[in-house]
């Protein structure tokens, strides 16, 4: 498996977390499903290998070649069908709105064929990625797409982006009153603007950030207790932490930590991901 991430250039950093590529040869037998967990980010995904399947209502459905993955508030299940080849732009919480005018509230917990929104762009970017001669060329092509669009007029609300930055930097432990005062909107106004540009509310984004904080902590140590984790992530009690974790991941913290989720980690890596793995 080859996995590589590329940090965005400085002028794209306010909007983009990273650009990544994942490639692997077809394995033997029926591949195991992989979970993708909420991470507070949206993604523009291009498949240059075989398409993935996504679990929908009890059965797996084949995905399109170019996809927009909306904000997740629960896990989704993906399954490779053969040779893996994926390149993606992982946007920060409100970053995608700077480049794409998409109904973000309508794609929460969904991975949508991007041709529904921009068919010409979808066809062009897939051809561009498929014809690239190397993974580095694919990464560069995704950056070029963003740079081309950065010069276009945008409906992005910069104050929503600033509010997201505050929540992420506070790792979900923010005061609603402080946020409202900082941004200058009422709580109701801010929630409406978040749904339009991010897809989810500030409170849900905050919970996802605390969830991601636990996952990052768990990667660094195997001696973390659930009680200590709950306190460190800003929960009043362990039961509240476990309810949130189960809601976002579909399993208990203990079960998740004892399971194998290497590819899942690649698909939802934090801002500072672990070193790429190649074998």
Radius of gyration (Å) = 18 Å
The percentage of residues in β strands lies in 15-25%
Task: Please identify which CATH superfamily of the largest domain we are dealing with.
Answer: Jelly Rolls
Low-confidence stretches: 271-279
Structure description:
- By secondary structure, the protein is α+β, with helices and mostly antiparallel strands.
- It folds into two domains: 2-154, Sandwich (Jelly Rolls); 158-257, Orthogonal Bundle (Arc Repressor Mutant, subunit A).
- The protein contains ten helices and ten strands.
- The protein has helices at 119-130, 135-150, 158-169, 176-183, 187-197, 202-220, 226-232, 238-249, 253-257, 262-267; strands spanning 2-6, 16-24, 34-36, 43-47, 52-56, 59-62, 66-69, 76-80, 84-91, 111-113.
- Strands 1-2-9-4-7-10 form a six-stranded antiparallel β-sheet, covered by helices on one side.
- A hairpin with a 2-residue loop joins strand 5 (52-56) and strand 6 (59-62).
- It is globular, with a radius of gyration of 18 Å.
- The N and C termini lie close together (5 Å).
- Residues 271-279 have low confidence and may be disordered.
């Amino acid at each position: 498996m080859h996995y590589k991430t590329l940090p965005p250039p400085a002028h794209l950093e306010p909007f983009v977390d990273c650009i990544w590529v994942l490639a692997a040869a077809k394995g033997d037998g029926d591949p195991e499903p992989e979970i993708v967990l909420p991470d507070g980010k949206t993604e523009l995904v291009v498949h240059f290998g075989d398409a993935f399947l996504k679990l929908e209502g009890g059965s797996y459905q084949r995905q399109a070649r170019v996809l927009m993955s909306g904000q997740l508030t629960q896990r989704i299940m993906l399954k490779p069908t053969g040779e893996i080849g994926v390149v993606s732009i992982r946007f920060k919480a409100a970053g995608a709105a700077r480049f794409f005018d998409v109904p973000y509230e309508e794609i929460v917990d969904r991975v949508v064929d991007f041709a529904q929104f921009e068919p010409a762009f979808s066809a062009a970017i897939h051809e561009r990625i498929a014809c690239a001669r190397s993974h580095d060329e694919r990464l560069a092509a995704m950056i070029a797409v963003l740079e081309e669009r950065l010069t276009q007029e945008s409906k992005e609300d910069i104050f929503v982006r600033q509010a997201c930055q505050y929540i992420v930097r506070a790792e979900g432990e923010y005061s609603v009153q402080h946020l409202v005062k900082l941004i200058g909107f009422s709580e109701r106004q801010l929630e409406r603007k978040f749904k339009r540009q991010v897809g989810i509310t500030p409170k849900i984004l905050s919970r996802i950030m605390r969830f991601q904080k636990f996952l990052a902590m768990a990667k660094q140590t195997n001696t973390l207790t659930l009680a200590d984790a709950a306190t460190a992530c800003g929960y009043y009690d362990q039961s509240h932490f476990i309810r949130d974790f189960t809601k976002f991941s579909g399993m208990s913290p203990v079960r998740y930590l004892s399971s194998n989720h290497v590819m899942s980690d690649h698909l939802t890596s934090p801002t500072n991901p672990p070193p790429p793995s190649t074998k």
